[in-house]
Design goal:
6 helices; mainly alpha; about 140 residues; globular; three-stranded parallel beta sheet
């Protein structure tokens, strides 16, 4: 274990708490938790690299350890790594020690924190600019 870390583990409705066995004291297990509220306090998120979670992490300035499973997740994880916003782990091949080392690296990487902050600023700028609205309105106007 890593007692210097606190982990909030959201298991959803499909995993029984009892199935986890003994859980270290520094791990809090919940069925669900409001993700945006958690991200406001998080220093790092381990996720499957679904597009919604990736965007929410960026908007909140939270680096990621992506553990993709399928669909769009592997491509999203590749983009996380490419843009230096986090690292990727392989759910089938990673060991507890390897994951722990990745977490330590991510939490101590000042350059990563700066890249995440820059990407956050870009995302927020685009959100405020209404570029998305302009794009949709332009597309709709072409269809009319």
């Amino acid at each position: 274990g890593a007692p210097h870390r606190r982990l909030l583990l959201s298991i959803g409705k499909h995993v029984a708490r009892e199935a986890l066995g003994a859980v270290p004291e520094n791990v809090t297990v919940v069925e669900s938790e409001p993700q945006l509220a958690v991200l406001r306090r998080a220093r790092l998120m381990v996720n499957h690299a679904g597009l919604g979670s990736v965007k929410e992490c960026i908007v909140h300035g939270v680096p990621m350890l992506a553990v993709p499973l399928d669909v769009d997740q592997p491509a999203n994880a590749a983009r996380i790594v490419f843009h230096g916003l986090g690292m990727q782990a392989d759910v089938a091949a990673s060991t507890a020690d390897a994951l722990s080392a990745q977490l330590d690296t991510l939490l101590r990487d000042d350059a990563l924190a700066r890249r995440v902050a820059v990407m956050r600023a870009r995302f927020l700028e685009v959100e405020r600019s209404a570029q998305g609205v302009d794009l949709i309105e332009a597309r709709l106007a072409r269809r009319a």
